[in-house]
Design goal:
The protein is an alpha+beta fold. It has a domain of 105 residues: PUA domain (Archaeosine Trna-guanine Transglycosylase, Chain: A, domain 4, Roll), CATH 2.30.130.10. It is 27% helix and 20% strand. It is built from 14 helices and 25 strands. Strands 16, 17, 18, 19, 20, 21, 24 and 25 form an eight-stranded mixed β-sheet that branches. A seven-stranded mixed β-sheet has the order 7-14-13-9-6-8-12. Strands 4-5-1-15 form a four-stranded antiparallel β-sheet, covered by helices on one side. Strand 17, helix 10 and strand 18 form a beta-alpha-beta unit. Helix 11 packs across helix 12 and helix 13 crosses helix 14. It is globular and about 80 Å long. The chain binds S-adenosylmethionine. The site of S-adenosylmethionine has 18 residues, from helix 9 and strand 17. Pfam families: Methyltr_RsmB-F (PF01189), PUA (PF01472). This is Methyltransferase.
Length: 581
């Protein structure tokens, strides 16, 4: 067999909107941005698992996972998970991270040395390791490997049979998933069950109207010729080789199932789909650290403003030992059901879920009375809001003012057999009209964002300067609601999974300039890097202000090209002073 070709390899290049690319180059410098852009196309080389400490322990989970991995015959590199380099910096051993050293991204001076030390200790235990950072021993890492070079068996006159998958499918496959039927876009002719196929991905290309698109009909027959759709565009976009689980005809006839068993992968990452349900949750390290930074205490009342699917909600509830109240809201009905399902799986009772637009999270009061009235006075919604109050262990005085009217409504609407798990009636999604001002001890705003930190990403061209600005406006309006809902003396944590400074440092600037009673707070643990200081001129001439000197060490910016090898993420924590000042 011939050696792998330039075509049959994994060397993707991210396509950015040119103005967005210019903006990021101004923000990061061209070398650093090139590293970030490259890192985004790779998955992290380890899986991060949060253990539900109310049901199990890290040691028990490590034992169970080892047994599961051994049984499933999944092949992993069983060498050092993490190691410190000569400077004592925290390096996760990963073959594709060569560019990390070139990028010279500084690790922050806070906990990075400690992280290096404790994580290098954990390296000695092998493939599955417990996080040694103080307070984070409920986090377990499982190492993967890659990128691997795959020999697709190309000879001069013979090309492999092929399957092309959608970008979303490929991004999931790079994280360890299988190739499922709905993700398959095209396949070679005469493919039968059991054939060996090379799998590549079709990434959006510029189209005539100036946008981006996939000009391929699902079910396209590939001839192995240069006239095949996306032939040249797929150079360097091969993600693995596998065995078909069904014929070509079936792939485009059946609605579901595994289409290709991808046994030779560019990245080998363990798949924990449906494994140890309720005992563990697969979660990015920065997300775990965000819940930790909020520092929720048992008995407190916490608001998670954009909560679905509930990763951080459940992390918060566990940190509170399931004591107190975590109010988890999301604007999507189905996503609220996801939070309920996760809370039930994890056996958490302190979580109450609501469908609510976070932009309208502050309850409106009627001018003529002290009674809380929603703009759309829906009876069932009033009842629901008050069900929470009657069950709440740490009600706030402001909320008891509704009691008279509430009792009446409850007698009409309360279901006979009472509320079920998490006070959700039989999986129903309850609507909320909002919450009283100053009624939460802590608020988490894990804002919807451009998600330009998620990994792996094979396309980013859809974001424009305008769309980035719209995300930022939306986040500010949400933050305005958070400020009203948190009590004086409370805490707000803001986070995003984007590398866009406009949604991160610029939000912090807006907050500190607008609300003088908010101050940036120290976060524990702090292993992310410093924030960006200064300002940047946008293409339309507007100046975007970021952090001021001294503020940068108070936020955590997780750089995807840094040795921590996480997704791109940002966390800011604010202490809330007296609102009268
Ligand atoms: C970044 S995700 C949250 C992830 C979640 N915190 C977790 O850790 O599992 C953002 C969420 O915000 C929700 N969202 C977007 N706009 C919203 C709005 N106006 N009100 C409430 N939720 C909203 C989306 O439905 C999405 O589930």
């Amino acid at each position: 067999m011939d050696a792998p070709t330039e075509r049959h390899c994994y060397k993707p290049t991210l396509r950015w909107n040119p103005k967005v690319e210019d903006y990021f180059i101004k923000a990061y410098g061209s070398d650093h941005f090139a590293c970030i852009s490259e890192a985004l196309t790779f998955p992290s080389c380890y899986s991060c698992i949060r253990v539900n400490t109310l049901k199990s322990t890290s040691d028990a989970i490590i034992e169970k996972l080892s047994a599961i991995l051994q049984e499933s015959g999944q092949h992993y590199v069983i060498d050092n998970m993490n190691q410190s380099d000569a400077n004592g910096e925290y390096i996760i051993d990963c073959e594709h991270k060569d560019h990390v050293k070139e990028s010279n991204v500084p690790l922050n001076s806070y906990d990075s040395d400690k992280a290096a030390l404790v994580l290098s200790e954990s390296a000695q235990t092998g493939q599955i390791t417990k996080c040694q950072l103080p307070g984070l021993d409920y986090v377990v890492f499982v190492k993967g490997s890659g990128p691997h070079t795959i020999n697709y068996g190309c000879a001069h006159d013979k090309l492999p049979k092929e399957v092309i998958v959608s970008r979303k499918c490929a991004e999931a496959v790079l994280r360890g998933a299988q190739v499922y039927v709905p993700g398959v876009l095209a396949c070679s002719a005469h493919v039968e069950k059991g054939d060996t196929v090379a799998v590549s991905v079709a990434v959006e290309q510029p189209v005539q109207d100036g946008g981006w698109g996939i000009g391929m009909t699902r079910g396209t027959v590939l001839q192995g010729l240069q006239t095949d759709p996306y032939f040249f565009e797929r150079n360097g976009l091969y993600i693995g080789q596998g065995t078909t689980m069904m014929s070509r005809a079936q792939m485009f006839r059946v609605p579901k199932g595994i289409a290709v068993d991808l046994h030779d992968r560019v990245f080998k990452l363990p798949s924990f789909h449906d494994v140890l349900e309720g005992e563990i949750f697969l979660q990015n390290l920065p997300s775990i650290i965000t819940a930790h930074a909020l520092d929720p205490q048992p008995g407190e009342r916490i608001l998670d403003m954009c909560a679905a699917p509930g990763g951080k909600t459940t992390a918060i509830a566990i940190l509170m030992k399931d004591k107190g109240e975590v109010v988890a809201v999301d604007r999507s009905h189905n996503k609220v059901l996801d939070i309920q399902k996760l809370a039930a799986e994890m056996g958490l009772n302190c979580i109450r879920t609501y469908k609510l637009d976070a932009l309208k999270a502050v309850l409106q009061r009627s001018e003529s009375s002290d009674v809380c009235i929603s703009p759309s006075v829906a009876q069932v919604e009033l009842d629901i809001d008050c069900t929470t109050r009657t069950n709440c262990s740490n009600e706030k005085a402001t909320e008891t003012t509704c009691a008279g009217k509430v009792d009446m409504q409850q007698s009409i609407w309360r279901p006979r057999n009472g509320p079920g798990r998490n006070n959700c009636m039989g999986g129903r999604v309850e609507k909320s009209d909002g919450f009283s001002p100053n009624s939460f001890d802590r608020v988490l705003l894990d804002a919807p964002c451009s998600a330009l930190g998620l990994r792996p990403r094979l396309f980013t061209g859809e974001e424009t300067i305008e769309s980035l600005r719209n995300h930022a406006k939306y986040q500010r309006r949400m933050f305005d609601q958070a400020v009203q809902l948190v009590r004086p003396g409370g805490v707000i944590v803001y986070s995003t999974c984007t590398i866009n400074p406009g949604e991160n440092e610029a939000l912090v600037r807006y907050v500190l300039d607008t609300y003088k009673f908010l101050t940036l707070a120290l976060q524990h643990p702090r292993i992310g890097g410093p924030g960006l200081v200064g300002s940047c001129e946008l293409p339309d001439g507007c100046i975007e202000e970021w952090l001021r000197s001294g503020e940068e060490e108070l936020v955590q910016r997780f750089d995807p090209s840094s040795p921590l090898d996480t997704i791109g993420f940002f966390v800011a924590k604010f202490n809330v002073g007296s609102k009268d000042a």
